[in-house]
Amino acid sequence: MTTHDVRFSDYENIVFFTGAGMSAESGVPTYRGAGGIWKEYNFEEYACQAAFDRDPEHVWEFHNYRRKLIGACAPNPGHVVIAEMEKHRATTVVTQNIDGIHQLAGSTTVHELHGGLWRLRCDHCGNRDTRRDAPLEDLHCGACHHYWRPDIVWFGDSLDREVFDQVIKAMEGCDLMVAIGTSAVVYPAAQLPILAKASRARCVEINPEPTPLSDIYDVCVRKPASEALAEMAQGLL
Ligand code: BV8
User: Fold this and answer.
1) How far is the CA of 230 from the centre of ligand 1 (A)?
2) Cβ atoms of 118 and 100 closer than 8 Å
3) pLDDT value at position 119?
4) Whose CA is nearest to atom 1 of ligand 1?
5) Long-range CB pairs of 56-62, under 8 A, 24+ apart, other chains included
């Protein structure tokens, strides 16, 4: 039984804007709500620049725990629908997630607003690497031996300007924007759906719970991501 009239086949250029709820059905903990990771771990102790400068080994303990946990999580049917959509429509994924699961499912146009758990960067010599080995054994940059830093946008970090500019273009150029599994409380990502709305795209929110941004959407689907996405892809996939 569908509770909406949204069919991907009616649109040409679709942006999927995803948050932690997109990966919930893959077993990745969300940040807020029941079982949320920020309920268990204080980000000021484990996931911010000051904590990393203070005690990189402690921050790496938390991030290796997450690499182990998330490294065992596979794409869910919702990720697969979004990846398959690339074969039928212009499709862009804008994700706040750092788990890399959209790419594992086969999506190729993915903008990671908050960086990536598998990406490493050395702020001492500029070296970069991407490794899905969980946990990361050698915490030191191969070039200068300083600590690798997870290439993640922590609270207080600015977002990558180039990524953000590409995302603004995608939001302003689509005719359907589907926000999936985000609580819409973290800025500046939370305000991005407003750009799609202002550019006359049809805007859909897929989330079992309402969010502070629910009122801007044309359609709110109070269902889990995989179920709602499968319904919308009917007739195409
Ligand atoms: C910035 C990194 C400019 C990854 C995260 C003081 C100082 C500095 C900045 C600020 C400040 N005060 C406020 C700010 C701005 C701050 C901010 O927005 N704070 C909020 C909390 C008020 N933002 C920043 O700091 C950003 N940078 O502003 O730079 C600047 C620079 C310096 C000084 C000033 C300004 C950086 C923000 C990025 C933070 N990084 N994490 C990691 O460590 O894991 S936050 C974290 O929240 C993740 O990135 C995540 O992506 C993001 C959003 O969370 P959601 O994805 O929405 O997930 P959540 O758990 O909240 O919700 C899940 C939803 O899914 C729920 O609604 C649930 O109902 C739903 N759901 C559950 N199951 C399903 C489902 N939906 C569908 N299907 C299901 N099955």
Assistant:
1) 26
2) yes
3) 97
4) 158
5) 56/139, 56/147, 56/149, 57/139, 59/150, 60/136, 60/139, 60/147, 60/150
Point out the residues of the chain with pLDDT beneath 70.
1-3
**Scanning the structure block, which residue is given the tokens 């309402």?**
210
Q: CA-based angle 180:177:224, to the nearest 5? A: 25
Nearest 5°: phi and psi at 96? Answer: -90, -10
223 CB under 6 A from ligand 1?
Answer: no
**What per-residue confidence (pLDDT) applies to 95?**
98
Q: Which of 187, 192, 209, 229 to mutate to test the pocket of ligand 1 (most atoms within 8 A of CB)?
A: 187
Non-local (6+) Cβ contacts of 164 within 8 A are 113, 188
pTM of the full structure? 0.96
Task: Let me know the angle formed at the C-alpha of 78 by 75 and 81, rounded to the nearest 5 degrees.
Answer: 100
| Site to substitute for ligand 1 among 31, 98, 178, 232, most atoms within 8 A of C-beta | 31
pLDDT averaged over the chain? 95
Task: Write the burial class of residue 126 (CB in 10 Å: 0-12 exposed, 13-18 middle, 19+ buried).
Answer: exposed
Question: What is the largest distance, in Å, between two alpha-carbon atoms of the chain?
Answer: 58
Q: Where are the alpha helices (DSSP H) in the chain?
A: 21-24, 37-40, 43-46, 49-54, 56-71, 77-85, 101-105, 161-173, 192-198, 225-232
Q: How many Å lie between the centroid of ligand 1 and the Cα of residue 154?
A: 9
Tell whether ligand 1 has an atom less than 6 A from the beta carbon of residue 89.
no
